[in-house]
Each structure stands twice: as structure tokens, then as C-alpha cells.
Write a structure and sequence with these properties.
Helices cover 62% and strands 0% of the residues. It is mainly alpha-helical and 118 residues long.
């Protein structure tokens, strides 16, 4: 078993949600370098920006394709709604990360690795 998979399994056994043990929460995380810091140890600001912008864009695109295209004159409202949705989802993910950090008891990736793997 490679080290990244072992660390993910160990974090899950400690009670961390599985999606917070990968480098990103999105499906393309398996294509990123698996030895990167898990999401739980990344900066909350970085997590918020990445997740809120991605979710806002994804939700706005889906809503435009399925519903909003019929009334394009309200595009400013749609842009604001997409941004608010992204911000809300980003905050949820940051709070989940903070909660998992408290459960784990450590916020530093380097310290956690030293405590558990050296």
C-alpha cells in the first residue's frame, strides 16, 4: 500500500470524513499528486476560495443550461445567486474542515506526520 493511501485510511479510522483526506474534494483529486497535503491540513482560506469559486461556477452553469437561459435579461441576479451559493458551500466546507481538525487534535501536516509516522 502506498503512503498516501495508508495516510488516508489512517485519517478515516480517526474519524475524519473520507473526502477531507484527499488533496481536493473534487473528482479530479485522484489525478493530482497523491502525496500532497490532505484537505484537512490545508489553509481554510485556500479551501474556501477553491471550493466556493468552483461550486459557484458549477451551479451557475447548470442553472443557466437548465432554467435561466429562458430569461437572460436577469443575468446580474443569476451571477449574484451563483456567487452566494458558492460562498455558502465554501463556508460549509471550511466548517467541516475545522470540525475535523478539532476531532483530530492537530492542525499542522508536518507535526501530524512526525507524531504518526516517524
Amino acid at each position: 500500500m502506498e503512503k498516501a493511501k495508508f495516510i488516508q485510511k489512517h485519517l478515516i479510522e480517526k474519524g475524519v470524513p473520507a473526502d477531507l483526506t484527499r488533496p481536493t474534494v473534487f473528482i479530479w483529486s485522484k489525478y493530482k499528486k497523491p502525496s500532497q497535503k490532505p484537505l484537512i491540513f490545508q489553509s481554510p482560506a485556500k479551501t474556501f476560495i477553491a471550493y466556493s469559486s468552483s461550486m459557484g461556477l458549477l451551479w451557475g452553469t447548470l442553472m443557466w443550461v437548465f432554467f435561466w437561459y429562458s430569461e437572460p435579461e436577469h443575468w446580474i441576479t443569476y451571477l449574484i445567486e451563483s456567487s452566494l451559493f458558492g460562498i455558502f458551500m465554501g463556508l460549509i466546507n471550511v466548517f467541516r474542515t475545522i470540525k475535523a481538525r478539532k476531532l483530530l487534535g492537530e492542525t499542522s501536516w508536518e507535526n501530524w506526520c512526525k507524531q504518526n509516522y516517524q
